Amino acid sequence: MTDNISAEQLRLFIERIERLEEEKKAMADDIKDVYAEAKATGFDAKTMRTIVRLRKMEKHHRDEAEMLLDTYKAALGLA
After folding, report:
1. CB of 45 within 8 A of CB of 35?
2. CA–CA gap between residue 25 and residue 22 (Å, rounded)
């Protein structure tokens, strides 16, 4: 009996994961479409992706990353 319950539970988990993976792909496709639309109107998608990534970061992490980038640029003569 426990084998049937475990197998059923496992099947349900797998099916949920599969549905979520499908939803995740659909969302990724939607995001890709938004970037394409923005690019078609003249925005730079790569820069927009960077901004989205930066906005997800806490301010102190963003400040630290920018400081490191400035340090590396200066070391390479890019600043």
Report:
1. yes
2. 5
Distance CA 32, CA 38 (A): 10
For 77, phi and psi rounded to 5 degrees? 75, 25
| pTM assigned to the model | 0.74
Question: 41: which DSSP letter?
Answer: T
Coil, strand, or helix at residue 66?
helix
Which letter does DSSP use for residue 77 in this model? T
Report which residue type is found at 27.
Answer: M
> What is the per-residue pLDDT for 47?
98
36: tokens are 């394409």
Distance, in Å, from the CA atom of 69 to the CA atom of 79, rounded to the nearest integer, reads 10
